[in-house]
Design brief:
Elements (H helix, E strand, L loop, with lengths): L1 H17 L19 E14 L22 E14 L2 E11 L8 E12 L6 E9 L20 H4 L6 E9 L2 H12 L11 E6 L14 E7 L2 E3 L2 E15 L16 E13 L4 E16 L4 E16 L1 E2 L5 E14 L8 E16 L2 E15 L7 E14 L1
Antiparallel strand pairs: 1-2, 1-18, 2-3, 3-4, 4-5, 5-6, 6-7, 7-8, 8-10, 9-10, 10-11, 11-12, 12-13, 13-15, 14-15, 15-16, 16-17, 17-18
């Protein structure tokens, strides 16, 4: 594996020198300077989850920490994004989030979400290498920006694969110029696209998830294939993806007394299928994954490698009410049974949840989502065992885009 990484690095470096991607060459006065190619955009999401709440003990740490008892108004995200094509073959993207929690009592700290650059290997940038912290190409909804997604949070089943959807690594992406234009239009035209992560992608990454140090000598490997295509007036996109690696726990992720293997390291492997019918006007988005990973076992008070499975189906209808006014009613049903490696003791879950809502866009810069959630969740760790919570609540989110 080390030799393979070294070969990739040397090949990229030699390519850059040969094609003058790096170097001191004379500036061309007709070409914009790099700082003239930088753009800024972002969004802010503010939420309230307590309306018509029937059970304050119903919570979801992965989804939204303001669920349940003692929750109130909450800034879910505050993103400011710097990005730009600073030369013909070099693109960069930096996205901090200023709504991160430093601890249970300290909120609204800045933290890096994305920090990467893309190096184009041909003049059309059909072949790209991405290096840095970025989204792991696993799943459709994981790739889809929270700025565009209809339900307020990603479904447990696939999002439990990679907390915050990101990690440090190197990735190769390929897509034809025509498909890259299609990817861009699916986002630009308000069809809730996932963005451009190539038709084919594979990569190596640490596997400990974003903003956490590497704790073992094993790199995760991921591969993804997706193919959007037009069929009459409709656009469909099937996809398939998988990853494999080993996950190592740090001591701050474990309760005192929980039993673990001596290395704190467990197999972490999944495969998923995706299908999207873009809302023109009726839309379907569905994904399902199976695999195995670390999970708390209350029978033995231990963490062991166990099987997992789950997915979701989202139905939507896009209704344009004017030039910029859009109304999108939607509903999502999700299931998941398995562990969440990034939570305390690889907390064990069984989720059954129905969400019914609507997104209203009176102008492009403002969105309001109202969503009624009917949920039953079992979430158990060494400290909290026999913990099954169910209830209903109305959730509201206001979002500003800039």
């Amino acid at each position: 594996m080390k030799y393979l990484i070294h070969i990739i690095i040397l090949a990229v470096f030699n390519f850059c020198i040969e094609n003058e991607v790096v170097g001191q060459g004379k500036p061309d006065p007709k070409v914009p300077k790099w700082y003239e190619s930088i753009s800024i955009r972002g969004y802010v999401q503010a939420r309230y989850n307590r309306l018509f709440e029937t059970n304050p003990q119903l919570k979801c740490e992965q989804c939204d920490r303001s669920w349940g008892d003692n929750g109130g108004f909450f800034l879910r995200r505050l993103r400011v994004i710097l990005f730009g094509q600073i030369s013909e073959r070099v693109y960069f993207y930096i996205q901090p989030d200023f709504a991160s929690n430093a601890s249970a009592t300290s909120q609204h700290f800045g933290q890096i979400r994305d920090a990467y650059f893309d190096l184009g290997l041909d003049k059309n940038n059909s072949f790209r290498v991405r290096i840095g912290q970025s989204k792991i190409p696993y799943g459709f909804e994981n790739m889809q920006s929270s700025q565009n997604r209809l339900p307020l949070d990603r479904a447990d089943a696939l999002n439990s694969a990679v907390t915050n959807e990101r990690d440090l690594g190197a990735f190769f992406y390929w897509a034809t110029p025509e498909k890259r234009k299609l990817f861009a239009s699916l986002v630009r035209d308000g069809l809730k696209g996932s963005g451009d992560y190539g038709l084919f992608g594979f990569g190596l990454y640490n596997g400990q998830t974003a903003n956490r140090p590497e704790l073992n000598n094993n790199l995760h490997k991921v591969v993804r294939f997706t193919w959007p295509f037009e069929l009459g007036d409709q656009i469909l996109e099937p996809g398939l993806q998988a990853y494999s690696g080993k996950y190592t726990f740090s001591r701050d992720q474990l309760s005192a007394g929980v039993k673990v293997n001596p290395t704190l390291t467990y197999a972490d492997q999944r495969v998923a299928t995706s299908f999207t019918l873009y809302p023109k006007p009726f839309g379907i988005q569905a994904e399902y994954n199976i695999g195995r990973g670390p999970q708390f076992d209350k029978r033995l008070d231990s963490i062991s490698t166990q099987s997992l499975s789950g997915g979701y189906v989202t139905l939507s209808y896009l209704k344009k009410l004017g030039k910029d006014k859009v109304l999108i009613p939607f509903t999502r049903y999700q299931v998941y049974e398995g562990g969440k490696k990034h939570e305390l003791d690889a907390r064990s879950y069984a989720v059954r949840e129905l969400e019914i809502g609507a997104e209203w866009q009176p102008v492009r810069q403002f969105e309001l989502v109202v969503m009624y959630t009917i949920s039953k969740r079992r979430f158990e760790d060494f400290i909290r065992q026999e913990n099954i919570q169910q209830g209903r609540l109305l959730r509201i989110q206001a979002q500003i885009n800039f």
